[in-house]
């Protein structure tokens, strides 16, 4: 594969002696990651004014910078200030504007953590942070609080403790490896983590969240995918935020992953000035599925400190969903979610399609604005469910039946539970009753 002119230029500016083929070595990109404003200026061929440089420097002092030469090479030099790649990679002084409602850990990942490195939020799955290293420091990182924090690189003992927690918690059937970027670990180390997890009977599936196909596609080597293949069922989610990030190099990385039988998903973050546009999103999801990547989530930007300039109103996300649903293939459409501040998890939000309802009819509207009705059955004998599956007419395979009690809204809907409302602890009206 040929390098672009820009890539050759950047390579030569970094190293005049090494062979160009080094460009394809992901470790070369990590060694030569751009970590200060001066190097950026030199490689980019610009000089910021002293005032601007000072403002950038102040930002970098709080939130460090790291850009791979590869990702830098995608920036359009003619209009870089509006460039989606530049905006995701280069510090903006606005990051220092902290709003009253910003939090360092809005998702309470640290508080919902039974052991260091594990966030156990949902009943059957956990997040395991296995690396604190990233190919690039995304300016919109939700874990900005930890970026560049070398002291908290999880060591083998810490990861072992996380794995031990998973081993001792039979309800966990799905483990998400994240970080940092798990693919910044050495192959054999990652192989060890995956083997340990796979050896646990109740772990049915492992997922890896990685941005390397976007910012460091050369990390996806033949050796890496050969190792990953041993650990099926393994799912990977990546994070393309703009169609421009899907390049020849990233496509090659995706081919290697998909050809090794790994289902690929994508989690996009909705970012003001980067992708808050229905046309950009439509082009992004189409390019993704062409490359066998299924759009999984579209995230509303979190309330982490330093992200205020990236946030859009929720209405922008709804508008984008409105422009996708019905207009394009169902599997091109991600679920738009708001990750609840305080640790409530991801909450899906959608345009409203259910307009009204009576006892025997629902009124719906479609993506074109056509209003239609659905006639409901005149009689329906609901199966009364007391969770005593032995007496039920439905052919539930008892061998696989899971008789956990219902939680949350599911509990309000169930026949066998007398709960009629869910009340937050600390509710003042209830406190008065005592
Ligand atoms: C996102 C997330 C998950 C996985 O959620 P899915 O909806 O299953 O993809 C699990 N744990 C935590 C803490 C998360 O943030």
What does this 3D model show about the protein?
It contains 15 helices and twelve strands. The longest helix is centred in the N-terminal third of the chain and has 13 residues, at about 50-60. The chain has two domains: about 5-95, no CATH class; about 120-350, Aldolase class I (TIM Barrel). The chain starts with a helix and ends with a helix. α8 runs parallel beside α10. The protein has helices at about 5-15, 25-30, 35-45, 50-60, 70, 85-90, 155-165, 185-200, 210-215, 220-230, 250-260, 280-290, 315-325, 410-415, 430-434; strands at about 120, 125-130, 175-180, 205-210, 235-240, 265-270, 295-300, 335-340, 345-350, 355, 360-365, 370-375. The protein is globular. About 30% of the residues lie in helices and about 15% in strands. It is an alpha/beta fold and about 425 residues long. Bound molecules: pyridoxal-5'-phosphate.
The topology string of helices and strands comes to: HHHHHHEEHEHEHHEHEHEHEEEEEHH
CATH class assignment of the largest domain: Alpha Beta
Helix-strand category: alpha/beta
**N-to-C span:** 73 Å
The helix tally amounts to 15
- Determine the CATH topology of the largest domain: TIM Barrel
Give the overall average pLDDT.
93
Number of structural units classed as domains: 2
Low-pLDDT residue intervals, each spanning 5 or more residues: none
DSSP, total strands: 12
Which percent range describes the beta-strand content? Answer: 5-15%
- Biggest pleated-sheet summary: 9 strands, mixed
Overall 3D form:
globular
Radius of gyration: 24 Å
